[in-house]
Structures are given as structure tokens and as C-alpha cells.
Automatic annotation (TrEMBL), chain A:
Source superkingdom: Bacteria
Residues passing through the membrane, by range: none
Species this chain originates from: Halopolyspora algeriensis
Enzyme class, spelled out: oxidoreductase
Catalytic activities: propane + NADH + O2 + H(+) = propan-2-ol + NAD(+) + H2O
Protein name as annotated: propane 2-monooxygenase
The keyword Oxidoreductase is assigned to this record: yes
GO molecular function terms noted in the UniProt entry: monooxygenase activity
Record keywords: Monooxygenase, Oxidoreductase
TrEMBL record, chain B:
Keywords: Monooxygenase, Oxidoreductase
KW Lipid metabolism (keyword) present: no
Polar residues bias: start-end ranges: 1-10
Protein name as it appears in the record: propane 2-monooxygenase
EC top class named in words: oxidoreductase
SUPFAM superfamilies the record matches: Ferritin-like (SSF47240)
Catalytic activity: propane + NADH + O2 + H(+) = propan-2-ol + NAD(+) + H2O
Taxonomic source organism: Halopolyspora algeriensis
CDD domains assigned to the protein according to its UniProt record, in alphabetical order: AAMH_B
Length: 544, 368
């Protein structure tokens, strides 16, 4: 189509909508934002007639690559260390994708602009594409990778795992609560515009370095739809900015969305990239370096900062603190260590770190060895069953952490932990901002105004609560993270499949009591609790 | 002269032989190569099931910590009481069309290609030159007006409802339905644009006036707008795909336009309208499957039928009235090939047979 006929076609399609006079569309989802004063902004346009063939062509490339990978025996060169983390990553990500599809009518409900409605409806179809294409990739991994256990129970495992709940925020946040907070600020303005860069660009690069060129093929194809979504989000953001009354809500939501994305996405993707790779070339960018480029420079400086000219207060402090947590407070490393400590309740295997890994970490994150080196040596030493319990239940100087009530990643930067009684229960938070999220942001009033549409934090937010005082073997049986011989565990703290004696079974973990830190905390007297918290914050948690 | 920059060594990760291929080693679960958390409908799971089932979790299945966000005044996630219908197991529903990413793009692209080709051929062959003024006006006004119905339902019934169903299988089928509707609406709009460029005196803006204010179309617009206003997602789906489509959609597309176009020298419009009809047949399949499951529910069959009957009684008279108000357009073309009453009784037959499948009764007003 010529440029001229394309613009005529776009013009024509705007004629499809009309002002209803008999009845207006059901308002299923509310927002506290107002759009009456907003000028109508146009996002990038897309006509179905060109959209479908364009996507079909992209698909053909993806499926061609999949066939090629199998014919070319790709899995003979894939690193198991990497693939094991894909059991976690690919269990999580199809849900956020499909949630993005489900979020679109919320934004359509909230924003009175037919031009944007069209863009959002196309995005809905994109997101169905993303979700199912990723499920299909996972299915291929299950069929062709050496160890299918964990892939085979993927959606079940994700739904009952502590790690799934962390990831689920990146998804549930799109579809619940205030329609604009969820479907615009959290989903598009922050998650898609900022954090998909690490998800869909940085991570595929690392996959390729580990012999997997299918993940890049699929995820780059997914990412190529993203610019239209970003444009949808930006148009709505500009419309929201037209009403002074929305400013405080936008600032609240930017803070919440930024911080939660940082807590959740950096924890997960940071771990996959830093601990899932075998590529230890010194000139390979660390997650921190990638973050600096994709998030700090490309997003914060080029997208967020310019919004200040509209009088919007940008969460500079939170951006800087995220960076500080990543480089100086070892956020990603603490998360990886936590995942590895918790290996018996995972549904994937975690490879121990070697001297080569140690050297790379020390080079990229000076001081790493002093904080984590001896713990990973202990992890390596304790990796086989028989002589010892799983590392979490041996004394290696590591105190199991409290969980953050808001972001559900544990309070790993121990000195930053906040403890408050909220809604009648003592709760722990990883940071001041996570405390604010629960106590201030997700409430029916905000800074003296009614916010009846804002969401609430719900659910059994501390996973361990479900299994307080259970036997670890019973926990695993309840989770069904057991292989098809009925006794060998799916999770293992190493990659050795060649000798069954090296594989942990239910018998190896029977008799080990499991406990909930939060229930324990709530059972303490005031004095005990004060002491416990002070000691927790002061504990450097270093293996001697 | 070629010079090599040696100041910066380019470095690449080295490929390594890992033998991480299926079958390389035998150990517990080494042959566990199917998703084992759901029961497939047939013996082996289809790709459609593999990529769709349980992606939207459920506290009645594996979601052990529950939904972690909620609305201020109600639960989060996908509450089953967002419809009045009930099911002992919503997850049993499978889309008979097995729609997922690959089928969505494949089918819709095929339709797009077919339409593009037809329109190009039509232009080359001067296919519009034989149209009478009366037929041109019919297409301008009535085929034109119909694009709005398709778009309104696509955007505000189907896109809206796919947030609300209790399983991924239901919501994805509805999402695909919405894609069909919006594509078809745009196809009609772009066809209208084409005609404006090919036929002298074709008024490309007339469809808006007709949809907004031509008295024969107002009851249709009223029903469409009321359908978008329904809160219960299953009612919106049922009232649209079972009642409105049977009595108004199929009546207009199949039993009017498709029947009379050729006799009026128009071989192009039916190919376009035919794609919409095809989409609808496809979408009717999943809709039937869903409501058959619900009317046959072991525990809730009676209550579900009672509620569906209420919906029939509420929507059928409105749709019937809208259909009858359209009657004058049957006599507008030069060649009046069909009588309204014949079209209407064909549409009612279709509606009756769907109702019979659900064991529902036709409302009394319709019996005449
Ligand atoms: Fe996406
Ligand atoms: Fe937190």
C-alpha cells in the first residue's frame, strides 16, 4: 500500500466507532483517574489487513528456526546450567503475556478514545501470540532437552511455588485494581517500556551465549511487537497528564510500578543472566552493565526524565536506589543465593559455581567473594545426598530470610528490612518503599483523597505459611516436585544425572522440619521480636 | 587497502559440546515428555491444549497462595461469579477450533489475502460498472451501516469479555472471536473506501448517517449498544452469538446480502460478506460447545437453563423487533430476489435449532 492510501485507510477506520445514544459499554473496571479534559492522542496505527500477514511472516521465521534447531541438534550444545533456569523463567512468563491481553479491556474501559481502543485491541491479539508462542517454546524444550522434569509440570509447579508468586505480580498487577494503574502505568509505562528490555533483549543474548538460539528467535519476535504497545501506553499517559487531578495518582503509580518491577524483574532476570550462564568472558557485560544501558540510560534518561517538562515528579530516588541495590548491595547475588538455598523446594536444578565463576564475579562485582564465595563452596561441598542435609538445613552461617510482604522477594538486604504491624499482623518488608506500597499506596484513600478503585494486596503472601511445621518430604510430596519413579526429587543442587546415587530422594529429606518465619515472628513477644529484628538486620549472613 | 583494527579484540562465546539432548542419559523422568498437569480431551494433548490449559491459574486447581492482588470491593483474578451461570468444572471447556497463535495468524491472513485478491480482480475487471444506482445505494447505505455493528460488538462485547471468563480456554476463544469481528469490520470499511474511489457518486460517508439516524437501522443499533452494556460476560456472549447473530447477523449477511447481490450484478460483496459468515460459523462452534457444556452440567444444568432461558426471553424479542424494522431494505434493490418473510423464517429456523441443542424454548412472541 502506498503511504497515501495507508493514511486514507487509517482515516477510514476511525469512522467505525460512534457515540452511543441508547446505552454505553458496561464499566466493569473502574479508575480514579479522569480523562474528561484530555486531548485525544493517537498511538501508532495498525490495520488488521496488514497486521495479520505481517505477524504470520514473523511466525514463519520463528517456526522455521525451531525446525532448524531440532534438525541441527541444538541441544548437543546447550548448557544445562542455562536450560534449568528456563524451567523457572518459562513457567512464569506466559502468564504475564496473557494477562496483558486481558488487561486491554480495562484500559479501553478507562480511556475514552476510540483511536487508542484500536491500538489496544491489536495489542490484545499480540499478547495472545506472545503467551502461546512461549508455551510452545517450552514444549519444545520439554521434548528435546535432556531433563524434561520441571518442564513437564510447568503450569502446576509455577502455581504452587514460592517463586511463581514472585513472578505472578508481573501479570496480576496488569489485571487487578485501578484500571489505569494496572493496564497503563504498571503494564505499559514501566513493565513494557523499561523492563522488557532486560527480558526480551538482554536475556536472549545470554541464551545464545549458552548455545540456545531459539530463545532469542522467539523473544526478539515478541519484542518486535513492543514498540506499538509502548506507543499505546505513552498516548494514555499524555492524556492522563492533561488533568491536574491525575498527577498525584501518576506519581504514586510510577513509584509503585517502578519499585515492584525492579524488585521482581531484576531478581529473576538478574539471577538467570548472572548465575545461569557459562559465559565468563571478562568483556561480557554483567547484568549491572546491561541494566545501566537498557534501563538507566535508555529508559530513565530518555523516556522518564523528559516527562518532567509536564510537571510530573519522577521517582529519581527509587531509580538511584535500584541501581545502588544492584551494584553496591548485591541484590541479584543475594537473590541467587536464596534460590540456591531453597533448592529442595524448586522445580529445577541449580548448578554449583566454580572457580571460573568466582573469578568473574569478583571482577564484575568487587567484594563478591567475601560475601558469597565460601557459601557457594559449601553449596558445592554439600551437593550430594547421604552425608548431609540440604544446605539450608546445615549450619553454614546462613540465616533463612523473612519474606517481603509486598514484593514477595525475601528481605535479603538485611539492614533495610522494615517490620511493622499492618492490618493486625506483624509483617516484614524488604525496603521502605515496599512498606509504603502495602501501607499507603494500595489503600482506598491516598493523601486525603478517595481512591476506591485502587487494588489491595491479598493471598497467603508468605509461601512458607502454607507449610509451617511440615516435614520437608511431605512438602515436596504435596508440591508433587517428584520424578516418575515416585521418590527422586525434581530439584537437585547439581547437574549430574549420570549416577542415580547422586540424586536426592524423598528419603534424603524426610524428618527435616519446615517452618514459616512470619508465623514464628508473630508468635514472639514484643521483646523477643525487637531483639530478633535487631539481630536480623545486623547479621552479615556470611559463611565463615 | 584493507587494514585490520587490532586495537579491539572482538570476542565471542565459544560453542561447547554438552550433549544435553533428550535421550543422552537415562534417569528418573528422563522420558517424561508431556505436560502432565491436565487431562487432555482426547488421548493425547493437542498443541492447542498444551499452550492454553492452565496458563490462567485457578485456586481450585494449583494456585496455592491464592490471587495476590484484589479489587478494592471484591476478589482479584477471575472470579467465577462474574457470570450467573455455574459449572462444576469450567476447565473442561476446550475450543473446538483449537485456536492459538499459529491458527489465528494463518486463518486471518488467508482471509486477508483472499479479499485483497478479489478486490484487485474486481477493480481490474471493472466489476462495479454494471451496478445499478439502486444497488450502489444499497451497498453504500446498508452494507456500509453493518460495519458498525461488527466493530462495536468486536470491541465492546468480545474484547471486553475476554478479561472475564474463568479459564484461559474460554477467554482465548473469545479473544479470537473479537479479532474476527474487528478484522471484518475494517474489511467492510476499507471496501467502502475502495468503492468510493471506483464508483462515481458513491458516498463513502453515508454509512455513518444511516447507522446514526436511518430509522430502519436504529433498533439494530439499540440492540448492539445494549449488548455492549451487559455486565455478565456469559450473557453478553450468549446474547450476541446465539441470539443477535442468529436473528439479525445471519439474517442480514446470509439471508439478505448473500442471496441478492449476484442477481443485482454484484459478485464482489458476497465474497467479502462470506468471510464474515465463515468467521461466525467458526465462532458459533466454540459458543455452542461452551453453552452445551453448561446446560449439560451435572449439578447446575437446571439453574443454567433457567438463566439462559431468561436471557433468550430478554434478547430474542429485541432482536426480533430490530430484524423486523429492517424489513424495508428487502424491497430497496432493483432485483428483489428474496422476501423478508422467507429470510426471517430461515433465520428463525437456525435459531430454533441452536435453542433445541441447549434444550431451551423459543419465546412466545416469536412463535408466529
Ligand atoms: Fe507481550
Ligand atoms: Fe519488597
Amino acid at each position: 500500500m502506498s503511504r497515501q492510501s495507508l493514511s486514507k485507510a487509517h482515516q477510514k477506520i476511525t469512522e467505525l466507532s460512534w457515540e452511543p445514544s441508547f446505552a454505553t459499554p458496561a464499566q466493569r473496571f473502574g479508575t480514579d483517574y479522569k480523562f474528561e479534559k484530555s486531548p485525544k492522542k493517537d498511538p501508532l496505527k495498525q490495520i488488521m489487513r496488514s497486521y495479520f500477514p505481517m505477524e504470520e511472516e514473523k511466525d514463519d521465521r520463528v517456526y522455521g528456526a525451531m525446525d532448524g534447531a531440532i534438525r541441527g541438534n541444538m541441544f548437543r550444545q546447550v548448557q544445562e546450567r542455562w536450560m534449568e533456569w528456563q524451567k523457572l523463567f518459562l513457567s512464569i512468563i506466559p502468564f504475564p503475556e496473557i494477562s496483558a491481553a486481558r488487561a486491554m479491556p480495562m484500559a479501553i474501559d478507562a480511556v475514552p478514545n476510540p483511536e487508542i481502543h484500536n491500538g489496544l485491541a491489536v495489542q490484545m491479539i499480540d499478547e495472545v501470540r506472545h503467551s502461546t508462542i512461549q508455551m510452545n517454546l517450552k514444549r519444545l524444550y520439554m521434548n528435546h532437552y535432556i531433563d524434561p522434569a520441571g518442564f513437564d509440570m510447568t503450569e502446576q509447579a509455577w502455581a504452587n511455588s514460592y517463586s511463581g508468586t514472585i513472578g505472578r505480580q508481573f501479570g496480576e498487577s496488569f489485571i487487578t485494581g485501578d484500571a489505569v494503574t494496572a493496564a497503563n502505568v504498571y503494564l505499559t509505562v514501566v513493565a513494557e517500556t523499561a523492563f522488557t528490555n532486560t527480558l526480551f533483549v538482554a536475556m536472549p543474548g545470554e541464551a545464545a551465549a549458552n548455545g540456545d538460539y531459539l530463545l532469542p528467535t522467539v523473544f526478539h519476535s515478541v519484542q518486535s511487537d513492543e514498540s506499538r504497545h509502548i506507543s499505546n501506553g505513552y498516548s494514555i499517559l499524555l492524556m492522563a497528564l492533561a488533568d491536574e487531578d491525575n498527577r498525584k495518582l501518576l506519581e504514586r503509580d510510577l513509584r509503585h510500578a517502578w519499585w515492584n518491577n525492579h524488585c521482581v524483574v531484576d531478581a529473576a532476570i538478574g539471577t538467570f543472566i548472572e548465575y545461569g550462564t557459562k559465559d565468563r568472558r571478562k568483556d561480557r557485560d554483567s547484568y549491572a552493565e546491561m541494566w545501566r544501558r537498557w534501563i538507566y540510560d535508555d529508559y530513565y534518561r530518555s523516556y522518564l526524565l523528559p516527562l518532567e517538562k509536564y510537571g510530573l515528579e519522577i521517582p529519581h530516588d527509587l531509580v538511584e536506589e535500584s541501581w545502588n541495590r544492584i551494584v553496591n548491595k548485591f541484590y541479584v547475588h543475594r537473590v541467587a543465593q536464596f534460590f540456591a538455598t531453597g533448592w529442595p523446594v524448586n522445580f529445577w536444578r541449580i548448578d554449583p559455581m566454580t572457580d571460573e565463576d568466582f573469578e568473574w564475579f569478583e571482577e564484575k562485582y568487587p567484594g563478591w567473594y567475601n560475601q558469597f564465595g565460601r557459601w557457594w563452596e559449601a553449596y558445592n561441598r554439600l551437593r550430594y545426598p547421604g552425608r548431609n542435609k540440604p544446605i539450608a538445613f546445615e549450619d553454614v552461617g546462613y540465616e533463612y530470610p523473612h519474606r517481603c510482604w509486598s514484593c514477595m522477594v525475601p528481605c535479603l538486604i538485611r539492614e533495610d528490612m522494615v517490620v511493622e504491624k499492618v492490618d493486625g499482623r506483624w509483617k516484614t518488608y524488604c525496603s521502605e518503599t515496599c512498606y509504603w506500597t502495602d501501607a499507603v499506596a494500595f489503600r482506598p484513600t491516598y493523601e486525603g483523597r478517595e481512591t476506591p478503585n485502587m487494588g489491595r494486596l491479598t493471598g497467603t503472601r508468605e509461601w512458607e505459611t502454607l507449610y509451617h511445621n511440615w516435614d520437608l518430604a511431605d512438602v515436596l510430596q504435596d508440591l508433587q516436585y517428584v520424578r516418575d519413579d515416585g521418590k527422586t526429587l525434581i530439584p537437585q543442587p547439581h547437574l549430574d544425572l549420570d549416577d542415580e546415587k547422586k540424586l536426592w530422594t524423598l528419603d534424603d529429606i524426610r524428618g527435616i522440619p519446615f517452618a514459616s518465619p512470619n508465623i514464628t515472628l508473630n508468635e514472639m513477644s514484643d521483646e523477643e521480636r525487637e531483639q530478633h529484628i535487631a539481630a536480623y538486620r545486623a547479621n552479615p549472613n556470611v559463611t565463615p | 587497502m584493507v587494514t585490520q583494527d587490532t586495537s579491539k579484540q572482538r570476542s565471542f562465546p565459544k560453542p561447547e559440546f554438552t550433549d544435553a539432548e533428550a535421550g543422552a542419559v537415562t534417569f528418573p523422568s528422563s522420558e517424561s515428555r508431556s505436560f502432565n498437569y491436565f487431562s487432555p480431551k482426547k488421548k493425547r494433548a493437542t498443541i492447542y491444549e498444551d499452550v492454553t490449559v492452565d496458563v490462567q491459574p485457578d485456586t481450585d486447581r494449583y494456585l496455592s497462595q491464592g490471587w495476590i492482588y484484589a479489587f478494592q470491593n471484591g476478589p482479584g483474578g477471575y472470579p467465577v461469579d462474574w457470570t450467573g451461570l455455574k459449572s462444576t468444572d469450567w476447565h473442561r471447556f476446550r475450543d473446538p477450533n483449537e485456536e492459538w497463535e499459529k491458527t489465528i495468524y494463518h486463518n486471518n491472513s488467508n482471509v486477508v489475502r483472499q479479499i485483497q485478491q478479489n478486490l484487485e480482480n474486481a477493480k481490474k475487471a471493472g466489476a462495479y460498472s454494471g451496478w445499478s444506482r439502486g444497488w450502489t445505494q444499497f451497498v453504500e447505505r446498508h452494507v456500509g451501516a453493518w460495519m458498525h455493528a461488527e466493530n462495536g460488538l468486536g470491541m465492546h462485547v468480545f474484547v471486553a469479555a475476554q478479561r472475564s471468563g474463568p479459564t484461559n480456554m474460554i477467554n482465548t476463544a473469545i479473544a479470537v472471536n473479537s479479532a474476527h469481528k474487528m478484522r471484518f469490520a475494517q474489511d467492510l470499511a476499507l471496501y467502502n473506501l475502495d468503492l468510493g474511489e471506483s464508483i462515481e457518486n458513491f458516498d463513502g460517508s453515508m454509512h455513518r448517517d444511516v447507522w446514526h439516524s436511518d430509522p430502519v437501522w436504529q433498533p439494530v443499533r439499540e440492540v448492539v449498544e445494549n449488548l455492549t452494556a451487559v455486565e455478565d460476560w456469559a450473557e453478553a456472549l450468549f446474547a450476541t452469538n446465539i441470539v443477535f447473530e442468529s436473528l439479525v447477523g445471519v439474517l442480514f449477511r446470509s439471508y439478505l446480502v448473500m442471496q441478492i447481490a449476484a442477481r443485482n450484478g454484484d459478485y464482489v460483496t458476497p465474497t467479502l460478506i462470506g468471510t464474515g459468515e465463515n468467521d461466525y460459523e467458526r465462532d458459533l462452534r466454540y459458543t455452542r460447545e461452551l453453552f452445551t457444556m453448561l446446560t449439560g452440567d451435572l449439578e447446575h444444568s437446571t439453574a443454567n437453563k433457567r438463566l439462559l432461558q431468561e436471557w433468550v426471553n430478554k434478547w430474542a424479542p429485541r432482536c426480533s423487533r430490530a430484524a423486523h424494522e429492517l424489513q424495508p431494505i428487502w424491497s430497496q434493490p432493483q432485483e428483489k430476489v428474496v422476501m423478508f418473510n422467507d429470510s426471517w423464517s430461515a433465520a428463525v429456523d437456525g435459531f430454533r435449532s441452536v435453542l433445541a441443542e441447549f434444550d431451551l424454548e423459543e419465546p412466545k412472541e416469536m412463535a408466529k
